[in-house]
Every structure is written in C-alpha cells, then in structure tokens.
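Problem 12. The chain below contains 183 residues. Write out its predicted structure in token notation.
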Amino acid sequence: METRLTSISSRSLSLTGTLRCGYVPLSKPLCSFSIVQFMNGKINLEPIINEYKRPWKLFSLFVGLSLLIVGSFYYKAPDWDIPISFIMDFLAYLTAPWSLRVVVERRWKLFPLMLFYTWFTVDGCYWIYWRFQDPVALALMREVNFPASLSLYGMCGLVWYHQGSLQELVLASKEFLSGTEGK
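Solution.
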C-alpha cells in the first residue's frame, strides 16, 4: 500500500515522493536511544530491529565473517584471529551504515557520536581485545590495522546502507542506472 504525500509544510517535516507502509527511515542505531525514552514507550525499536534482520543483510554479514575467518587461517598475521573477527564484524554491522548515513545526510549534530562509533569499531574494540590477549601483537600491528579496518568499515557501510528489501535495492539500482529514478 502506498501513500502519496502532496503537501509540504515549511515548519514541519518536508517530504515529497512515495512512502511505503512499513518502511521507516532509520536515523539512529540502537545504542543512541535514551533508555528513558524507550521505557516510556516513546521509541519503537521494531523498524530498527527489522532492518537488522533483513535476510540479504544477514547473508552478507555471514559471507563477510566467513571471509574474515578464512583470512585468519590463510594469512598468519599475529593480530588476526577468530574472536576479534566476530567482534569487529558484529560492531560494523550495527554501526557502519548509520555512520555513513550521518555523513551522507549531513546530520552534523550526530557527527561526534558517529566518530566515536567509527573509532570504537575500527580501533577501540581492537585495542581492548589485544591489550588483554597479546600486548606485543597490539604494539606490532595496531598502526597497520587501523587503515585496513577503516576501509573495510566504509565498505560495510556502503553494502548495508540501503534500508529496504533486496528486491527494492535491485529495483532502485535499475532505475538509477537507467536514469529513470524519481520520474
């Protein structure tokens, strides 16, 4: 079911185009909501959780994690093991698309939070893990891990940026490539 918005108000939310029922734009990851707001029933987490549960996103998460695990066996890097692959992959799944969305949508008030999520996913959790596992590996590899992890984080943000089903992503991509989007 589709609803066409026909009026635009300068004082309220300005939207044009077609809205699909059940599709809610996500502007915050789970961890940026206030617990008080959630407990008072002012935040509906269902659309956010449904976005994280999309089969195509979970499949791509599984493929990426599988590649990280295989890479940990193939490349004998002292700081590449299975637990840190799980930790960093899961954190990227939760935060990378939101971080990219903050930049693309120019949500400058959320920029410091986006920087924290990015840093924590790319370097903070890595530092915590290796500080307790093997501080020597941390000292050797931290400097070279950051650019590699940051580029992977950006790629994950691009892969998981779309909010919608795989079918909607394919249709939007076809429209974009043919030059007929929004017509």
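Discussion. The CA atoms of residues 36 and 42 lie 9 Å apart. Students who got a different answer should revisit the alignment rule from Section 12.3.
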